[in-house]
Design a protein that fits this description.
The protein has 83 residues and is α+β, with helices and mostly antiparallel strands. It has helices at 2-9, 18-33, 55-63, 65-74; strands at 42-45, 48-51, 81-82. The protein has one domain. A 3-stranded mixed beta sheet has the order 1-2-3. The radius of gyration is 15 Å and the shape is elongated.
Length: 83
Amino acid sequence: MNPIAALLARYKDLRPPSEALVNGVCEAVETIVKIKIKPSQVTLRRKTALVAGPSSLKSEIALKKQEIIEYIKSHGGDLTDIY
């Protein structure tokens, strides 16, 4: 049994691929902020999403940051911050 447990141990902490997380960020921003952004505007660094765009968009995201993060986490994403 021990070799099987060791084999399956790497699948314990599966994380969604970065593309899925970027699409999740786009979906969350569109749902909560009501502004559509493209996946090319989102960059991931560790557990932080950086959104490129006008300052008005960034201000709206900052105002609803906690809601966006909770939305992403509820849909299986692992994100701690968004700028």
